[in-house]
Design goal:
Elements: H1 24-30, H2 42-57, E1 63-67, H3 71-82, E2 88-93, H4 96-107, E3 111-116, H5 125-134, E4 140-146, E5 148-149, E6 154-155, H6 158-167, E7 173-177, E8 196-200, E9 212-216, H7 218-223, H8 236-244, H9 254-270, H10 272-293, E10 296-297, E11 309-313, H11 320-331, E12 346-350, H12 357-373, H13 382-402
Parallel strand pairs: 2-3, 2-4, 4-7, 7-8
Antiparallel strand pairs: 1-9, 5-6, 8-9, 10-11, 11-12
Helix pairs in contact: 1-9, 2-9, 5-6, 9-10, 10-12, 10-13, 11-12, 12-13
Length: 403
């Protein structure tokens, strides 16, 4: 780290799309002494936690199952509990995280049919529908979709995918990666007919990494009876049975669970609609800044813009990794690097979880300094001013919505 950065641990926010900034309220909630997870009062923590998580998934009929893991563990649990080796799954690849889901399925010996899309596009509902309609023998067992592709800053229309599935009259289950969208952008598990929704503790819930959080439909729970993929640690049935008795089949991540209790209180007290509006407002201010810089988003059109992460192309002849490294080395602030096809070509601004307009402005100002240091054709203050004007114009609406 450069010598001009004072040692103020934790003072600068991060602008990566996860893990996200942890509010002091949640850090304190996680800072607890060891307690007995087999004591009779553990259920007093567990049962309300699972019930309130259903409110965030927006499901009445589904069940929430958690594991000590990251979101990737949630993916593995979703796949192994409901499918068998050789089962055919249909998935679109339009970014690094949709690609990683493909890799996971292939390692579990599933027959993966891939719809390749340009990075920057979203899930192609029409192409899903066409392929499902052509599947007359109903060989496709699952449709996999990434709701928010963190590598490209693209949010896909899950409702449109469900409509395409219904129009084809296809019985496949719908699996959705909502790791970087849940608790930050609207997600409607029941309304969209989602069978498995995979998330984690480290993004919209503003906590440390360590808890995979999975919404499971009754149809998906029934599929566990015939699924033949090996699983032990990630067995839905073991977890559901233990949870039903107020316990855990093995040691739970207690500190994160106490933090999650406080996180849910924060989210529900703010009101989910207000949480979503806050994320949109912060994201739109950042998009105003990007436009003022003369840079382009990876997302190809406004309908795809994510409210949790923006991926931005650097101008021709510049290296995005050099920019993010310089921002960290010179100013002590982290931004997201380009992943996969975006490596060296784009950087990312994470703006989810514990984030305010004032925090966002500090990130934009830091980026402007870093870009000017590296001779980007960007005027100091141009993007920051554009975001300021937007935040000023919308502050009254935002304050009244939060009241």
């Amino acid at each position: 780290m450069a010598a001009n950065i004072p040692v103020l641990d934790g003072q600068n926010p991060v602008f990566i799309p996860g893990p996200t900034n942890i509010p002091d309220r949640l850090r304190l909630a996680m800072s607890i002494q060891t307690t007995d997870h087999r004591a009779p009062d553990f259920v007093e923590l567990l049962a309300p936690l699972l019930a309130d998580l259903k409110k965030v998934f927006k499901t009445r009929t589904g069940q929430v199952i958690t594991f000590p893991a990251s979101g990737t563990g949630g993916w593995e649990a979703a796949v192994t509990n409901t499918l068998s080796p050789g089962d055919k799954v249909l998935v679109a690849r339009f970014g690094m995280f949709s690609h990683r889901w493909i890799d996971l399925c292939q390692r579990h010996k599933l027959d993966v049919e891939i719809i390749d899309c340009a990075w920057g596009d979203g899930a192609p509902a029409e192409r899903y529908g066409e392929r499902l309609a052509a599947d007359r023998n109903r060989e496709i067992k699952a449709v996999l979709v990434t709701h928010n592709e963190t590598a490209t800053g693209v949010r896909s229309d899950i409702a449109a995918v469900r409509r395409a599935m219904d129009a084809a009259g296809h019985p496949a289950m719908l699996y959705v990666d909502c790791v970087s969208s849940l608790a930050s952008m609207d997600f409607r598990m029941d309304e969209w007919g989602v069978d498995l929704a995979v998330s984690g503790s480290q993004k919209g819930f503003m906590l440390a990494t360590g808890m995979a959080i999975v919404g499971v439909s009754q149809k998906a729970l029934e599929a566990c009876a015939t699924a033949q993929c090996p699983r032990c640690f990630f067995d839905f049935r073991d977890m559901a049975q233990a949870n039903g008795k107020g316990g855990f089949p093995y040691t739970p991540p207690l500190q994160i669970m106490y933090g999650l209790r406080e996180s849910l209180d924060m989210l529900l007290d703010e009101g989910l609609d207000n949480v979503f509006a806050r994320h949109f407002r912060i994201a739109e201010g950042i998009r105003q800044a990007i436009g003022a810089w003369g840079l382009d988003l990876c997302a190809t059109r406004r309908a795809l813009y994510s409210d949790t992460v923006s991926a931005i192309y650097v101008p021709e002849g510049f290296d995005s990794d050099a920019l993010t490294n310089h921002a960290f080395d010179s100013y002590g602030v982290s931004f997201g690097v380009g992943l996969g096809k975006m490596a060296g070509k784009a950087f990312r601004i994470g703006h989810l979880g514990s984030m305010t307009d004032v925090m966002a402005l500090s990130g934009l100002a830091t980026l402007e300094m870093a870009m000017r240091d590296l001779d980007y054709p960007v005027e100091l203050g141009s993007g920051t001013a554009a975001a300021q004007e937007y935040y000023r114009a919308t502050s009254t609406v935002a304050h009244s919505a939060a009241a």
